[in-house]
Amino acid sequence: MTTTLLGIVDDRALGTDMRVIVTRPDRLAEAKAAADDVIKAIDAAASRFRDDSELSRINREPGRRIAVSPLMARALAAGLRGARLTGGAVDPTVGSAVRLAGYDRDFAAIPADGSPITVSVTRVPGWRAIEFDEADHTVCVMQGVEIDLGATAKALASDLAAAAALQAVGSGGVLVSLGGDIALAGDAPAGGWAVQTSEDSGAPLDESEETITIQSGGIATSSITVRRWSRGGVVLHHIIDPATGAPASGPWRTASVVAGSCVDANIAATAAIVMGEAAIAWLAANKLPARLVDRDGIVHRLAGWPAPRH
Known about the structure:
Radius of gyration: 19 Å
Mean pLDDT: 88
């Protein structure tokens, strides 16, 4: 089998680990620069933790129709598409619920154990409370609505960064990973892209972890085991069930999904955590290959999940 020489660079971005891989190592610097530009732009548009972001402005000014950049419009469209595709299981109006659960700053700055809080068990406003005109790039939210694009913005950044990196490289293939949200662009290397399906994207490579091979699209993993914290001894995490306004409490601790894009993969992975047992039928109906890990560590492979490499 022919082995493709790869160029690889690691960094930090959006509060997580970043990796760019190209099949043309001589163009790695150009690919990384192009990816960086996209990721910085997404951060400026859709960050919940930057007071100067477009998203923060939208959340500060309920009832007012606000013009947004084309990139922010794309981020909003992705978030709303996720809500439509999942019947509201992935909902961009969970912002206040996420914040009240304690995820109110960059994850690295959250104390390991803070003072006790009361998590409100109430239905979030719902994605239809966002009035978004995709054609003219304007948005208005109702009073009490706080948008959070955590289920889609980072994955969108991976998709757009991979596309931009490929354009900078000119040919070959590109992989961009942001905290385990992995997007592919161009031609895969010989044998495909080998991806390790770890529950913690920041963990070192481990031969005991399952590795699969994919050719295109994207793969994403959502997990309640990594971005979690405690308040008064109660363990919480960042994946909110819109039906309750509280962290999802279903049977899955981790969900990995392969899809046509990283955005779609992350939408589906997040939805699986929220849907619980119902995710099995939903993933199968949508023909989305998935790997679900239950709270006992038992792995369930669904809908044509690629066979592990040995």
